[in-house]
Each structure stands twice: as structure tokens, then as C-alpha cells.
Amino acid sequence: MLQDENLDAFGYSEGEKQWLRDFYAERKHSPLWINDSALTKKGIELQTSIEHSLWFGIPENRLKKATFKEYIFVRDEILLTAAAAFMVRDLDSGFMNLQEKKYEPRSFASQKQMNKILRKNLPLDSIFLQCGPLDSNYRFFATHLYNYCKSTPLDKRSFKIKPFKEDSVQSFSNTKVALVSKGYLSKKESDSLKTVDALKVFQAHNGLKTDGKIGKYTAIALNESTYDKVLRAALNLEKLRVKMKDPEKFIRINLPEYRLRYFAKDSLKSVHNIVIGKTENQTPELNSKIRNIVVFPYWKVPYSISSKEILPELKRNSGYLEKHNYKLYRNNTEIDGHQVNWKRIKENTFPYTVIQQPGPSNSLGIIKFEFFNDFSVYVHDTPSKGLFGVDVRSYSHGCMRCQNPVDLGKMILNYDSLGRKRNDLNADSLDSLILLKKNYVIRLKDQVPIFIEYSTVTADVDHIIFWLDIYKRDEEYLKFLRN
């Protein structure tokens, strides 16, 4: 079976054929997965693991087997070894080029990597789960994804459920069908109370408010097939598999989760809800470093907002600027808004710069965190606190509004040092500056790396959560993961 005329039929390259010969030569050509007539118990176990590769975050189409007109059971030995070698390599090193949105060329694991599945007296599923990074986030994710797939029917059925307000009867009826299809409800459990209870569990698994109501976002989550959710999980597990090692301190923002986390000295120090950009004003993914904390900031209104949103207000009421504490400038010279004939100004020729003065009503609130980027976005406070209580928080023009940002500023200052030199300003200093109610820029001694990411599936110690793909950024990846 290891001769060229046989291996050529598998479609393996010269390097792969040599790998197989070396692999079996080391084992004196003793088969691992078959006896003299069929697959062994271990062989059947491996075959099952390979067939369920998606449970480990590897799409099935990565491990498609060659097909033959005539069945020869000895071929199973080669096919299983090759599939295991492909899978171990993908689990350890990744299978995607995330930037170019395409698969990496498939390749065999090293002999050392393959020894993982040969020298341990453990179930093969457990061995595959031990592959990949040692990072605890990856470990939680991989284990919860496996357990979720093992206990949940991976239905490929999608639905067209409307929110309850649009069609209450059909919405509730179709929700029952969807919950049965997804394994949250049995066909026998048809009463309303059990349906609502099942819906609450589903909402919890999808990062939504567990109110048992079929709102807009619950309907969207129900309409997606479980299979597509798991493909998204595979994509996001891959992102963890290939990500760079974290620095000593940093901020990580996950946009679909609407959450900011600050880490220092290898531990989580602070967690904050955030509001992100609307679908028409999407917050970008980027890496940068926070260099300044600005107390009572000015807001230089982006041209798109001043020309499209402020100009129509000024045409209706020239006192709009004073009411919202704006000042008008042209060529760095302040202009009296009452002297401008606003009806003659057009959106595409708006000639002014609008700057909102510092104060509690400023759109940036009383504190902002500055970092270089090409999108003019930053993290900041907001006078509108109510949106932090909703589950899907996509309302801004692209910047990230942060809940309890002063607490975040204090935490950053507490850990701001370069070598033995600490920042002269600390948490108490920040309180004092806020009491002064004046614009002040605090320059950090040690800039804080900030990673703004887009991960629609996450996991913690307890469970896996499928967040809504609010910007539809996963869709391009899913097209070829499905094929």
C-alpha cells in the first residue's frame, strides 16, 4: 500500500508519500488502526473523531477523504493516518490565512506532533482536545465547543422568524419549531411556559437578555442554523489558535460582545460594557497604544457629522450651537453662528469646523482615551448612560463609549510606570482633575496596547456564547467554510 502506484491514487504529493513511508518504517510497517480484516476499536474511534472534526474547530471539508470505486480495507489505515496528521497539524498551527480569507495549504504534522496521539493511553477525542495553544482562553473555548457539539444537534436548517410584535401567532409557533430543531425543546414539550423557559436558555447562549421575548435580535439569533453558529465558533477558535502572545498589560475590546477588558500583570483588572458603531458607522478592528488620558476633552466634530447632522439643525435654529456648547471656526478663526446665512450653506460645501467645548454635556463625556489610528476613533465617556443596559449596543458613529470610564482611567494610572519611574499622577489625581472641570491631558509613561477585535463566539470558564454577527464580517469566511 505504501508503493508509488498505490499512494498516487490517494493524490498525495511526493513529500507526503515520503512522510507516510517514514512514519510506517519507524513502526516496522505495523498497522495502527486495522487488524487482518477490518478497523480495530481504536481505528473506529479515530474514524469517528475525524468525522466529527468540527467538534474540535476543524471544518469537515479540510479532511475529505479520497474515494475509490473498489473498497480495500487496508486503504483505511493510510487514510486515517493521513487525516489524523492533517488534523493534528491544523489544531497546533492553524488552517487559515485570516488576512487573505483563505485556507492555508494542507500539510502533515511532524512525527513529534503525531506521537501525541500514539503514546497516550487516552481517548482520542481527549488527545485532540489537548492539541493547540496552552492559553487558558483557547482551552476553555475548545472544551466548551466540543461539549456543545456533542450534546446539541447541529441542524443546518435556518428559519424566517419575525419578531413577536410583527406577527405574534406565527412568531411564537415558528420559535417552538426552531427550539426543537436546535435541541432546546422536545416535541412533547409544547406548552407556552416550557417554550419560554427554553427560549431563555437559548438567549443566554446567544448573549441576549434572558427575558423570554421574541424581539428583533432574538429572532435573528433563532433564524441562524446551529451548524452556522458552530462554523463561526471554528473561525473564532482559529483566531485564538494563531494570535500573538499577549503583552504584560493591555486593553482588549471585543466588538460583538460590546465589552472592554483591561489586563495587567497577567490578570484581569477591569471589565466595562461599551457602545460601538452602528452598522452604517462600523467600529474598525485595529491595534494601537493608548498614549493619553484626556480629562474634560474637546470634541472636534467629524465633517460627516457636522455637515449631515448639525447643518440641518442650524438651518432650523441658529441657536443650536449655543444650546449644545459648540463653537464654530473657519481657518482657525471663531465665527459667530448667528451671522451665517445657514440656508445658503450646502452639505457638500460646509466650510466650517465645529468644536464642542468641555463639559458634562460634551458628547465625549468627562474623559477620553487617545490612541493613534487611521479612523479617528477612540474610547470615551458619554452623557447618555442608558444604552449600557441594553444587550445589543450598536449606536455610535464609530467610537467606543465606555461605561465607568473614570474607573478604567484610575486602573491604568495605578499601573502606569516605566522601569522604576511611576506616573506622577495617580487615581486620586484623576479625581482632583475631574473636580476642576477643566481640560487636561495626562500623558502615560508607558503606553497601553489596545486590541480592538471582532470575535462573534467566545467562551469563559462556564460556557460558550454565540454573539450576533452584528457587522456581518464572518460571512465571507463562512462561504468557504460551508463549501
Provide an overview of this structure.
Among the domains are: 129 residues, no CATH class; 209 residues, Beta Barrel (L,D-transpeptidase catalytic domain-like), CATH 2.40.440.10. With 483 residues, the protein is α+β, with helices and mostly antiparallel strands. The two termini are 31 Å apart. The protein is elongated and about 95 Å long. The strands form five sheets. Strands 3-4-5-14-12-11-6-17 form an eight-stranded mixed barrel. The protein has a four-stranded antiparallel β-sheet with strand order 7-10-8-9. The protein has a two-stranded antiparallel sheet with strand order 1-2.
Give short descriptive properties of this protein.
483 residues, alpha+beta, L,D-transpeptidase catalytic domain-like, 8-stranded mixed beta barrel, 4-stranded antiparallel beta sheet, 19 strands
What is the topology?
Blueprint: H1 4-7, H2 14-26, H3 41-51, H4 74-93, E1 96-97, E2 102-103, H5 111-118, H6 124-129, H7 136-151, H8 168-181, H9 192-205, H10 216-223, H11 226-242, E3 249-254, E4 259-264, E5 267-277, E6 286-295, E7 299-300, H12 303-316, H13 320-323, E8 326-330, E9 333-335, E10 353-356, E11 367-371, E12 379-380, E13 394-396, E14 400-402, H14 405-414, E15 417-418, E16 421-422, H15 427-436, E17 440-453, E18 457-459, E19 464-466, H16 475-482
Helix pairs in contact: 3-4, 7-11, 11-16, 14-15
Uncertain regions spanning at least 5 consecutive residues: none
Give the biggest sheet. 8 strands, mixed, barrel
CATH architecture of the domain at 249-457, by name, is Beta Barrel
Alpha plus pi helix count? 16
**Structural class based on helices, strands and sheet pairing:** alpha+beta
- In percent, how helical is the residue content? 25-40%
- The gross shape turns out to be elongated
CATH homology-level superfamily of the domain at 249-457: L,D-transpeptidase catalytic domain-like
User: How many angstroms does the end-to-end distance come to?
Assistant: 31 Å
